[in-house]
Specification:
Elements lengths: L1 H17 L7 H6 L61 E5 L7 E7 L2 E12 L12 E8 L14 H14 L11 E11 L4 H15 L9 E8 L2 E4 L17 E9 L4 E10 L2 H33 L1 H6 L1
C-alpha cells in the first residue's frame, strides 16, 4: 500500500511538471523540490538552435531604395544606337560547347551582354509508362531567368513570361529534331539566362539547338533565332534591353517586336512570335530582315559545332 501511494504521488508530480500552468495538489506540493525546472523559466540561450539556417536581420530594406533615379538609363531615341551598331547589324556572338560535364550536351552563348547557358539531357527512358509514346520521343523545354540576371531581382519560381518562352521554345525546336528516331524516350532542354540585355528568346533558341546537336541527337537542321524591334519606319535588328518593345510606353501601328526561329539549311521558319500592331507589308519586311539576320548567325553555329567535334575526336579529324 505504501509503494502504491508513493507511485501515485510521483505520477501526479510528473504530470504537473509537464503542465506547470495547472495548480499542484496539496499532497504533491510538499514533495516537489524548491526549484523545479519548467518551460517558462528556461532562458533563450539554452534553447536548441538551428545551425544550418542563417537568419537575416529582423528589419531590412530593399537596396532599390538607395539607388539613384538619375543613374538608371531611360529609353531615348532609337537611332543612333548606344553600342554604335547600324540598324540591320546584329551583336557579336560567342558560343562554346561542352561546359556542363554532367549533361549530354551543353552550350554557353553570349550575344552582346546577354549570356545564356543551355544543358540537354537525353534521350532517356520515361519513368511513367502512360507518358511513353510509340511514335517518338517527348521534347520538354524549361526557360528560366537567373535571380541576378535582371536589374530587378527576379523570383526563382517560374513566372508567366518564362512559361511562355518555354512553350515557344518547345514548339520551335520540335520541327528540327528527329523525334521519331527515339520512341518511348524523353529529351529535356534546360535554359537559364545569366544576364539579360535583350533578345533572350532568340539567344535561347540558338543555344538550345546547338546543345541538342552537341548531345548527338539526330536533327533535320539547327535552329537559329533572331529578334527585331519595329518603331514606325525604323527597324532595329537584335535589340538590347533598352530598345525592346514595351506595350505600356509603345503604342500605335507598326510598333512592336518580332522573333523568328529559322532552319537555315532547309530555309524554313519553325517559329514566329510577334507583339504589337503591324501593317501587312511592314510585317513581311520584318520577317525578311529576321531571316537575313539568322543567316548571318549561322556561320557562328557551324564554327561552334565544328570545334566541339574536333575536341571530342581529335585523332579522327586529324587523319581525315
Amino acid at each position: 500500500i505504501l509503494r502504491a501511494s508513493r507511485r501515485r504521488t510521483s505520477q501526479r508530480s510528473r504530470r504537473w511538471s509537464l503542465h506547470p500552468a495547472l495548480p499542484a495538489p496539496a499532497g504533491v506540493a510538499a514533495s516537489l523540490p524548491a526549484a523545479l525546472p519548467c518551460r517558462q523559466s528556461c532562458s533563450p540561450s539554452l534553447m536548441p538552435v538551428d545551425t544550418k539556417r542563417v537568419r537575416g536581420p529582423d528589419e531590412s530594406q530593399s537596396p532599390l531604395l538607395f539607388a539613384r533615379l538619375d543613374a538608371e538609363p531611360k529609353p531615348g531615341p532609337l537611332l543612333p544606337r548606344a553600342d554604335g551598331r547600324s540598324a540591320a547589324e546584329p551583336r557579336p556572338v560567342f558560343a562554346r560547347a561542352g561546359l556542363v560535364s554532367q549533361a549530354d550536351g551543353s552550350v554557353y552563348a553570349e550575344c552582346g551582354l546577354s549570356k545564356v547557358l543551355c544543358a540537354v539531357y537525353g534521350p532517356r527512358e520515361i519513368e511513367r509508362k502512360e507518358e511513353r509514346r510509340l511514335s517518338g520521343a517527348t521534347l520538354g523545354c524549361e526557360f528560366r531567368f537567373a535571380p541576378f540576371s535582371c536589374k530587378k531581382r527576379a523570383a526563382w519560381i517560374q513566372g508567366n513570361l518564362e512559361k511562355e518562352y518555354s512553350s515557344i521554345m518547345e514548339q520551335s525546336l520540335q520541327p528540327a529534331v528527329c523525334l521519331h528516331k527515339y520512341p518511348r524516350s524523353q529529351i529535356d532542354v534546360y535554359v537559364i539566362v545569366l544576364e539579360n540585355d535583350g533578345s533572350t528568346l532568340a539567344a535561347a533558341l540558338t543555344c538550345a539547338s546547338m546543345a541538342l546537336a552537341e548531345a548527338g541527337i539526330e536533327m533535320f537542321d539547327v535552329v537559329v533565332g533572331c529578334s527585331l524591334r519595329q518603331c514606325g519606319a525604323i527597324s532595329l535588328l537584335d535589340p538590347t534591353a533598352l530598345e525592346e518593345f514595351n506595350a505600356a510606353s509603345s503604342k500605335g501601328v507598326d510598333n512592336g517586336s518580332m522573333t523568328v526561329a529559322l532552319l537555315p539549311t532547309l530555309n524554313q521558319i519553325s517559329g514566329l512570335v510577334s507583339k504589337g500592331e503591324w501593317e501587312k507589308q511592314t510585317s513581311v519586311e520584318a520577317i525578311k530582315a529576321c531571316v537575313e539576320g539568322c543567316q548571318k548567325l549561322y556561320s557562328v553555329v557551324q564554327q561552334c559545332l565544328t570545334r566541339s567535334v574536333k575536341r571530342k575526336i581529335p585523332e579522327f579529324v586529324s587523319k581525315a
